[in-house]
Amino acid sequence: MSTTAVESPKRVTGLAKGASPGIRGRARFAVPTTPRPLIPGSACADRSPMGELALSIEQRGGRSVATHQYHRGALRVLRPHYLDDSGQVCYVVVNPGGAYLGADLFLVDVEVQAGADLLLTTQSATKVYRTPGSFAEQRMAIRLGEGARLELVPDQLIAYREASYRQRTHVTVRPSSSLVMAEVVTPGWSPDGAAFRYEEVRLRNEIHVETEGDSQLLALDNLLIRPPLGDVTGLGFMEGYSHLGSLVVVDPRVDQALADDLHSVTSENDALTGISITRSAAGTTGLVLRSLSNSTGELNRLLGACTALLRKRWYGQEPLNLRKH
């Protein structure tokens, strides 16, 4: 497994057991409407998308609402709902097919316009089964306007035996945007009971800060786990753990004090956790948290505690309670 970022972190905050959490080498830091282009360059000559989803959110009358919604194939969103009186709208993404298979391609396009507030989650875990012949892939484009906010908190990604999965997320924020993205990766069941029987999991996040006439690369985060190429359970990889949690935060209020507070929250768990801060660009800063565990539940609780701190401190909101089960 490897992780890279475009700038050296200002400081790495407290690794619980004195080890870098799963980092190899240096950590450098709805109603269908007319479709519109999704991710730039996403048209594929080799395969057609299995599912497409586009969603645009705007602030109207103190509430965030969808002004554009499009879906085709094996992706849907449920009816919007509001968890509190903040005006933040919540959408749940559904894959009626239930899983990702070989050569499947899914395209997701999300725009949160100036001042709007979106919570985006999934109905259940993303399951990747055997992918003979070619990998399954999801490409997501995210654009946040000035003062816009997105909380992206999908259920866990489960990679089963002989699965190969790639996820590419391209994010463009404005200097006053707020972004929180959480991710949990777990190995699926295999007949011999071994944890790492999938072929590959590759998660790539590219985050740009856009100002008038300029765009700066804030972070390039590339996570790669390839069990067939070597023992990923040892030092410098998964450190004896099987489950990985990640949290990416981009906001002008990110600083070392926040990283220290998040570390205090994570220290209450048994998971191995580390936090890095990116450089600042156009007045905003990024933060990346990595955590290792042998339990999906533990990582969900840890990431939930971190997002709860951000929600309470920045917006006066209560912790998330999505009540999916």
Q: How would you characterize the overall build of this protein?
A:
By secondary structure, this protein is mainly β. The chain has one domain (12-39, 48-315). 10% of the residues lie in helices and 42% in strands. It has helices at residues 256-266, 296-315; strands at 12-13, 51-60, 63-73, 76-77, 89-94, 105-112, 117-122, 126-128, 136-144, 149-152, 157-159, 164-173, 178-187, 200-211, 214-225, 243-251, 272-281, 284-293. Strands 1, 4, 5, 7, 8, 10, 11, 13, 16, 17 and 18 form an 11-stranded mixed sheet that branches. Strand 2 (51-60) and strand 3 (63-73) form a beta hairpin.
Helical coverage, percent range: under 10%
What would you report as the Rg, rounded to the nearest angstrom? 19 Å
Q: What is the total number of structural domains?
A: 1
Q: Could you list the spans in which at least 5 consecutive residues all have pLDDT below 50? A: 1-45
Strand percentage lies at 35-45%
From the spread of the alpha carbons, the general shape counts as globular
Task: Write down the overall mean pLDDT.
Answer: 86
Largest sheet: 11 strands, mixed
Structural class: mainly beta
The beta-strand count equals 18
- Spatial gap, N to C terminus: 32 Å
Note the total helix count: 2
The SSE order reads EEEEEEEEEEEEEEEEHEEH
